[in-house]
Design brief:
This protein is α/β, with parallel strands linked by helices. The protein folds into two domains: 168 residues, HUPs (Rossmann fold, 3-Layer(aba) Sandwich); 91 residues, Pantoate--beta-alanine Ligase, Chain: A,domain 2. It contains ten helices and nine strands. Bound molecules: pantoate (PAF). The site of pantoate (PAF) has 10 residues, from strand 2 and helix 6.
Length: 278
C-alpha cells in the first residue's frame, strides 16, 4: 500500500488511475472504516483512504487536540482490507494559508448535530470538497452512522454537480448494537457496558413506528426518558423524514430516527432508518 503526503505527488500518482474510489476518514481506523474500504472496492478498483483530522469541523472545547491519532496501526489495517493508497497530508499541506473560502451548507446544517456543533458541517463540507478536488474520485464512501453528514455531502455533490458517486455504507455495530466510532475509546468500561442503550432506545422507536404508531413526539419522549433514567444527557432523539431530515409529512413512510446523547464526557450519535407501514 502506498502512502502519500503531498497534493502534488498524489495528483501525479493518480493520473495513471482511471477509476479511483475515496474513503475520507480522520484516522483511528476501526472495523467500520474497513467496511467502507471493502464497499469502496466494489465500486472502484483503486481505493484511496484519506486520513486527516480536520480542524475546521471541530468547535471550541471539542476534542481536536485529543482526537486519537494512530497512523501506523491505521495503515496496517487499511492495507489488509485492500486499500491501495493512503493520503495523509499534514495541516500545512491541506491549509497552506488560512482557509477563507468555505462551503456554505443549507439550513439543514444548523439542525440536529448543527445545533449542538455550530459550524461543524461548514468545516466538514469544505474539507470534503477539497479532498474531492484533490483525489478526483469516481466514487466515495461514507458511513450512515453520520447520517446528516452523508445527507449534506449528497446535497453538495448534486448542487455543485461534482462528478463523484456517493455510496452510503450501513452502520457497523458491535455485538451489543453499539455503532463503532473512534470516540467509543473515550468510554470507561462501565460506560461501554451502558453505551448500547442508545441503539436500544432508537430500536424501541423503530419497532413502534413500524408497528403503526405515528405519535412521534411521545415516542421521542419515551426514548429520551429511558436514556435519562440510565444517566445519559440527551441532546435529541427525533424522527425525521429520510429525504429532507425535517419533520415528516403525514403520509411520509421513509423515516429515520436520530439520536445524540452524552454518557459521562463522551457524546455518541446513532440512527436507524424506518419504513413506516402504508
Ligand atoms: O466522517 C469523518 O470522519 C469526517 O467528517 C470526514 C468526512 C473525514 C471529513 O473530515
Amino acid at each position: 500500500m502506498e502512502i502519500i503526503r503531498t497534493v502534488a505527488e498524489l495528483r501525479d500518482r493518480l493520473a495513471r488511475e482511471p477509476n479511483v474510489g475515496c474513503v475520507p476518514t480522520m484516522g483511528n481506523i476501526h472495523d467500520g472504516h474497513l467496511s467502507l474500504v471493502r464497499l469502496g472496492l466494489t465500486h472502484s478498483p483503486f481505493v484511496v483512504t484519506t486520513i486527516f483530522v480536520n480542524r475546521l469541523q471541530f468547535g471550541q472545547g471539542e476534542d481536536f487536540e485529543s482526537y486519537p491519532r494512530t497512523f501506523e496501526d491505521d495503515c496496517a489495517k487499511l492495507e489488509a482490507a485492500g486499500c491501495a493508497l493512503v493520503f495523509h497530508p499534514d495541516e500545512r499541506e491541506m491549509y497552506p494559508e488560512p482557509q477563507v473560502f468555505s462551503v456554505d451548507p443549507p439550513p439543514v446544517a444548523n439542525k440536529l448535530e448543527g445545533r449542538f456543533r455550530p459550524g461543524h458541517f461548514r468545516g466538514m463540507a469544505t474539507v470534503v470538497l477539497k479532498l474531492f478536488n484533490i483525489v478526483q474520485p469516481k466514487s466515495a464512501v461514507f458511513g450512515k452512522k453520520d447520517y446528516q453528514q452523508i445527507h449534506i455531502v449528497r446535497h453538495m455533490v448534486d448542487q455543485l454537480a461534482l462528478p463523484v458517486r456517493i455510496v452510503a455504507a450501513e452502520t457497523y455495530r458491535a455485538d451489543d448494537g453499539l455503532a463503532l466510532s473512534s470516540r467509543n475509546r473515550y468510554l470507561s468500561p462501565t460506560e461501554r457496558a451502558e453505551a448500547a442503550r442508545l441503539h436500544e432506545a432508537l430500536q424501541q422507536v423503530r419497532v413502534a413506528v413500524e408497528g403503526g404508531d405515528r405519535n412521534f413526539e411521545a415516542l421521542e419522549f419515551a426514548a429520551d426518558a429511558l436514556l435519562a433514567r440510565h444517566g445519559w444527557h440527551v441532546d435529541y432523539v427525533v424522527v425525521r423524514s429520510r429525504r429532507t431530515l425535517t419533520q415528516p409529512g403525514p403520509d411520509e413512510r421513509d423515516l429515520v430516527v436520530l439520536g445524540a446523547a452524552k454518557l459521562g464526557k463522551t457524546r455518541l450519535i446513532d440512527n436507524l432508518e424506518i419504513t413506516a407501514p402504508a
